[in-house]
């Protein structure tokens, strides 16, 4: 094959050592990708908080919400923690800006910070074999979809697409 992938139509017992090595490598790659996303989220949220104005800050809040709700879908604690750290790092510049600017938004930033800490502690904790309520899971799904849906229009505002469309006089 041109891509270097061998066909998997082999019949017989599976080599457990090869399988374990492949799963371990894949798990390490996923962890690395999630940590990289956390670093990029921290850098971009800092830029958006400083230079993006109010729409940039709204995008940072929406992205932090998406990260926080997405974390609950990962089974491994290290994966959940990496995504929750990305949520915390995405929201940190907003808190720092509110503290240094001494703006009226300090109370809002503190509320989001406390809510984020609660989300991190609940999301990163082990469930101890207990199942969450299916109603809470569905509510989490709906909140995640709502926060994901909010990202696209906010990105269009940050990029100035709506203002540009208004200038076209269509």
Overview of the structural elements:
It is a single chain. By secondary structure, the protein is mostly helical. The chain has one domain (18-167). It has helices at 16-51, 53-70, 77-101, 106-124, 134-159, 161-167. Helix 2 runs antiparallel to helix 5 (134-159) and helix 3 (77-101) packs antiparallel against helix 4 (106-124). It starts with 15 loop residues before the first helix and ends with a helix.
Key features of this structure:
mainly alpha, 6 helices, 77% helix, elongated, 170 residues
What can be said about this structure in brief?
Helix content is 77%, strand content 0%.
Q: Quick check: average pLDDT?
A: 76
Q: Give the beta-strand count.
A: 0
- Biggest sheet layout: none
Q: Which regions contain 5 or more consecutive residues with pLDDT less than 50? A: none
Helix content: over 70%
CA-based shape? elongated
Cα(first) to Cα(last) distance is 51 Å
Radius of gyration: 21 Å
Secondary structure category: mainly alpha
- How many separate domains? 1
Please provide the ordered H/E string of secondary-structure elements: HHHHHH
Number of helices: 6
Q: How much β-strand is present in the residues?
A: under 5%
